[in-house]
Each structure stands twice: as structure tokens, then as C-alpha cells.
Amino acid sequence: MSRRRSNGEDSVYRDGDRWRGAISLGYDANGFRVRKKVSGRTRTEVVAKLRKLRQQLDSGVIPDDKLTVQAFLDRWLAINLPGSVAESTEDDYVDTVRLHLGPALGRQRLAKLTVADLDKLWKAKRDAGYKPNSVRIVRTVLRRALGQAQREGIISRNAAALSSPPRIRAKEGRTLTVEQARRLLDAAAGYRLRPRVVLALAYGMRRGEVLGLHWSALDWNARTLGVTHGVKRIKDRDPSSGRKTRLVVSELKTPKSRRTLSLTPQMVAMFRQHRVHQAEAQMAAGTLWQDHGLIFASEVGTPMDPDNFSHSFSRLCEKAGLGHWHPHELRHSGASLMLAQGTPLHVVSEVLGHASIAITKDVYGHLLEGDKRAAAESMSQALFGA
């Protein structure tokens, strides 16, 4: 007469000098039973392992001790990621897995990945000279991937989310003074580049946003300009094109980044003059012109390369005697000049297209210290007298 199995034992049997156990995981796509086996030196050890497996199954976790981190990441990149993020972001994630996560963790079993493993990896990256923000990006990619594994029940917890994020100290960016900004615009007089520099400086716009502006978003009567699209360079996924990258004009990601700017009469006049110049360029291009409706287009109407904008801007700064600057520093300069002129923080946040005023405060809050001090001195004078 066979012994009655105790609760949670499933199938337990002796195999030579080892004890083995098996638990059913259900059936695969072909209708065959899928079983998970464990082994141990004693019956008690095997029963304990089976009970742990049963608890995992009851909580929705499907254990797979053979699945490696690399195998899962490859599947995640091929199946789960496409369509959930922008193509440029997807390209960045692929590079992060290829350059960092794969080499460091690829051979490790996904189910055995621990918080300690990842904390050790983040430290190794910092010791190798990677900046904290670069380490943060690697951690973010892995956290997102492991989130999918957790939803599928492959793992019970997200080790990346539980790992210690690198501490990032906000770096105060360079900003142009009013005098430097005027020198820059004086040097740009007569250049096709000037309207782009004016917009980036006046409204703190990113270079891709400037190049993605459409004539249809400009309301001449209301004197407003919609910022809805951006130009960026991404990998070309068409193998027949023979190109590694291509330029795309895509809608800005977040509702806050899609915003409407108020234009001054001087700005409207600048756009009218620029439209005349573009009409002349279109006539000169003739049948080569490809109309994309862009305010700032190439000599044949196609989107302009953001990197070319950067190179032209750098040469302009050299001509103005300012040294080497990047267009993104115009964004910082625009924000600092707006705050210096007393523009409320929430208005600056809306003009910049930040997701929240908290982001604006984190990045540019140090520029408000003078206002805080002036407010404190005014209150002190009111309470205590001169």
C-alpha cells in the first residue's frame, strides 16, 4: 500500500542516493504537460523546494531557472518594446543592452538576479568612469525590462527597481548674459540662422523643436505659434535604403511639450521676412523642392539636420567672440533671462514645455535665490523697520 502524500509534496521519489520531486506547471501550446523538477539530499529538502514552487505558482510566478538575462532581454527588445516607445528611444535601449547589460549580466540566470548583483554593477560602472546619469539610464532600461518579466510571472520582484539609484547632482549649465546674447544676434545679422537663434533664445526651445515648426501652426492674426513637432535623426530600419540613419519629423511626446507661444510684433515681422526668403529658395530649387510645410527647411524644402544646426551655431559663436557653445545652451540662457526679468516660474515652465513646474524649479531654482533674498529683506524691513 502506497504512502499518502502530504500537503505540498506533489511527486516525491528516491533516485539512487538523491531525492527528487516534480510539480506540474500546466500544459504547453502543443498540449504536453510541463513539469518542474527539483532534487536534494533528503526528502525534507525536496518537499521544502516543492512547497516554495507551489507558493510561486499560486502567486502567479512561473519559475524558469534556465532563462538567462540575455535571452529574456533579446525577447523583450524584439517583442515587447517596439511600439511602446519612440523609435529613437528604442534604438537607445538596444544600444544599452548591447553595450552594458548584455556583457555584464547576459549569462546570468534571470531568476537568480539579485539586488546585490545590480548594486555591484552600478558601482563598477561608476568606477570605470561612467557618469551617474549614464548609470541611471542603464538602470532605467533594466528596470523596465524586468517589469515585463514580473508582469509575465517569470520573476517575483524587480531587482533593478529595488537597487540603489546613482546620486545625480544637478549641474548648473552655462547661460549667456544679456550683453553676450546681443553680441550673438548682431553677429547673426544677415544669416539664415538668425531666426532660429532668436526663437531658441527667446523661448528656450530645443533645436529639434525649432526645426520642427510648421507654417500651419503659425496664426498671423492671433500672433501665436504652436510647438507640436520635432526633427531628430534615428536609425534607418529599412535594409534596402542603404543608409544607417534618417531624419524624421515626429510629434512631441508629452502634452506639456506641445505648447503655444505668444509672439511679439517683431517676431511676426521676422517670420514674414523669412517666408519671403523661403519663397525665393523654393523658386530657385524648382522641381527639386519637396514641401514639408516646415518654417525652417533645407534649400530643397526637406527637414534640416539638427547636427548641421549645431555646427553652424558653433561657428556663429566663434565669430561673435563667445567661444564654443551648443544650441541647447540657448535653452538654459532663455530660461535664465526670463527669470532675471521677473517672469513667474510657472510661466517659464509653460514656455519651456516642462512636464511640471517642479522640473523647472529643480533645474533653474538657484536663479531665484536673489528674489528670495530680496523678499526676505522686504519682509524684515516691514516687520522690524529700517
Unreliably modeled segments: none
Please provide the ordered H/E string of secondary-structure elements: EEEHHHHHHHHHEEEEEHHHHHH
State the helical fraction: 40-55%
Mean pLDDT: 86
Strand content: 5-15%
Kindly report the spatial arrangement of strands forming the biggest sheet. Answer: 1-2-3
Number of helices: 15
Look at the helices and sheets and give the structural class. Answer: alpha+beta
Kindly, what is the distance between the CA atoms of the first and last residues, rounded to a whole number of angstroms? 102 Å
User: How does the major sheet shape up?
Assistant: 3 strands, antiparallel
**E-strand count:** 8
What shape does the CA trace take?
Answer: elongated
Rounded radius of gyration (Å): 30 Å
Structural features, described:
The protein has 386 residues and is of the alpha+beta class. Helix content is 49%, strand content 12%. The chain contains 15 helices and eight strands. The protein has helices spanning 43-58, 69-80, 87-105, 115-127, 132-151, 159-162, 178-187, 194-203, 207-211, 265-285, 306-319, 328-340, 345-352, 357-364, 369-384, and strands at 11-15, 18-27, 33-40, 218-219, 224-227, 229-235, 245-251, 259-262. The strands form three sheets. It has a three-stranded antiparallel beta sheet, covered by helices on one side. A three-stranded antiparallel beta sheet has the order 4-5-8, with no helix packed on it. Strands 6-7 form a two-stranded antiparallel sheet. A hairpin with a 4-residue loop joins strand 4 and strand 5. Helix 2 runs antiparallel to helix 3 (87-105) and helix 8 packs across helix 12. The longest helix has 21 residues, at 265-285. The N and C termini lie far apart (102 Å).
